[in-house]
Amino acid sequence: MRTHYCADVNETHIDEVVTVSGWVSSRRDHGGLIFIDLRDKDQVVQLVCDPADNADVHKIAENVRDQFVLIATGKVRARGEGLENPKLKTGKIEIVVDALKIENKSLPMPFDLGDEKVNEEIRLKYRYLELRTQKSYDIFKLRSKVTIAARNALDELNFLEVETPILTKSTPEGARDYLVPSRVHGGEFYALPQSPQLFKQLLMVGGFDRYFQIAKCFRDEDLRADRQPEFTQIDVEMSFCEQEDVITVAEKLIHSIFDKCGFNIPSTFKRMAYSEAMENYGSDKPDMRYDLKMVDVIDIFERCDNEIFSSIAKTPKKNRIKALKVPKGDEIFSKRQMKGFEDYVRKFGASGLGYFQMKEDGLKGPLTKFFTEEDIQMIIERCELEVGDAVFFGAGEKKLVWDYMGRFRIFLAEEMKIIPKDVFEFLWVVDFPMFEVEEGRVKALHHPFTQPKTLDYEDIEEIASIAYDIVLNGTELGGGSIRIHKEEMQAEVFKLLGITNEEAKEKFGFLLDALKFGAPPHGGFALGLDRLIMLMTGASSIREVIAFPKTQKAQCILTKAPSPVDEQQLKDLSLRIRQHTAQ
Questions:
Q1: pLDDT tier at 366 (50, 70, 90 boundaries)?
Q2: Can you give the pLDDT at residue 548?
Q3: What is the 3-state secondary structure (H, E, C) of 348-411?
Q4: Which of 138, 166, 176, 515 has its CA 20 to 30 A from that of 19?
Q5: What average pLDDT does range 351-361 have in this prediction?
Q6: What is the mean pLDDT of residues 522-537?
Q7: Phi (first) and psi of residue 239, to 5 degrees
Q8: Is residue 33 pLDDT above 60, yes or no?
């Protein structure tokens, strides 16, 4: 139905007859001449319908409207001097139409396809229309190139692509499972995989040595800009490896992907220990495109006359007092703005926020009265303050201070507009804790199959794991770990997590049994494909880079899923719906 795609028609085709097809991007009637911008998969070409050349074609063109589907045949000619459009690949030529067919009409668009400010629910309801835009096409063209580049790179590294089950067993891995009732086994359920974690470990036991998969994963968790109930990850596992081997493979993979897609990035990435990331940036995924580093000042505040600060400082193992220097902050922000920043951090549990301003005649601010001149000088030196700088202080329980001061760091960078665009800053965060304790309950920080460096400990939260995350521009792009491959160590970790032998056998029995049959040392990583595309394209949400995404309420507005099913379907599955109570 075409001889050329729109983008392929150029000056070399002048005086040739071509046939193109696509959608009407715009139609302009210039009092006789009708111009139509016709768009196919990724470009526009201009059609000219001239009654002097073909009255029948012109008559048809009078009835054409935006988004009609057309098939047009005509002769290519140069636009002429001063009429070229440098914004278009086809901007030097046009097609004088000799035959025009309206293949299909279109209703008026429910929204302007070029307007990105249109309500997201409207855009998702008509997602198939939004996909017609150049922006959407470019996103999915890049996504396709990324997956092809990933497959090729891993193939060159001798990885074998293997698919793992979608219908599997429910296991406690962090988020809630999506459950699928079984018709054959009434009252029993499959779960959709949160990741292929257990199966890829079994493949290592099976001797596959190097595995990868572009894997669909499912998690029933609260959504945000970089989360969806179903998502895709580039999943990788390898045997007889240490952390360095895995990191080398991941860097080669990422570098190859970016290189094949036309981006220049370094071949190796910076590294930072988890403890350093938390202490200096208040985040295990710090954005390294800008500075703003926190400084520990708890020892100085211990000597101050403010009872709140001094009492917090008396327990430095449990608490933190962090200073965040903002270069020229005193010149950028007014005193009123600085006081208003307290409202921001209170949203995340902070009880307050102190600040100083570095003036020509020394450090000023409401807190200076609580410090000696010597201690004020120590603050100036430790924070490396210069005239015009501002410094903010957060105090309280360690994890709370890390959290709100880390968020405050990002907030300030956005307010000052110091985050550079079109820059890719990669960072490995390593040496994660194996466990965290919340409300008296021990949890695995990554997952219970992560190998700890040691199980000798005084404080369980100080046990380090052989785990690593790859961070890109302040977003966790992916991560992984060296896995436990010995049954005895796995049993000890389950014990520390409060998982009984019976529960472990019930939930993970197939994996534990496999570890008894000569499991090799193994480890791996996974990269979030959706997040990767979001960052490469500068999209504000992963919903933009998924063809048919869900809303933040996990609904598909297009298909109206989830939706009720009829009674017979429920009966076949041995299910009955109770009156739903909102949680």
A1: confident
A2: 96
A3: CCCCCCEEEEEECCEEECCCHHHCCHHHHHHHHHHCCCCCCCEEEEEEEEHHHHHHHHHHHHHH
A4: 138
A5: 93
A6: 97
A7: -100, 160
A8: yes
CA–CA dist 580, 532 (Å, integer)? 37
Alpha carbons 130 and 318: distance in angstroms, whole number: 51
- Answer positive or negative: Cα dihedral of 152, 153, 156, 159: negative
H helix and E strand count, the chain? 17, 22
Q: 272 falls in which pLDDT band (50, 70, 90)?
A: very high
Q: How far is it between the farthest Cα atoms of the chain?
A: 92
For each of the domains in the chain, give its residue range(s) and CATH number, in order of start: 6-104 (2.40.50.140), 136-273+426-568 (3.30.930.10), 290-416 (3.30.1360.30)
Taking the C-alpha atoms of residue 541 and residue 534, their distance in angstroms, rounded to an integer, is: 7
The encoded tokens of residue 441 equal: 């309950």
Res 451 pLDDT > 80: yes
pTM: 0.92
Between CA 333 and CA 266 the distance in angstroms is 36
Q: Both ends of the chain: CA-CA distance in Å?
A: 54
Percent of the chain at pLDDT above 70? 99
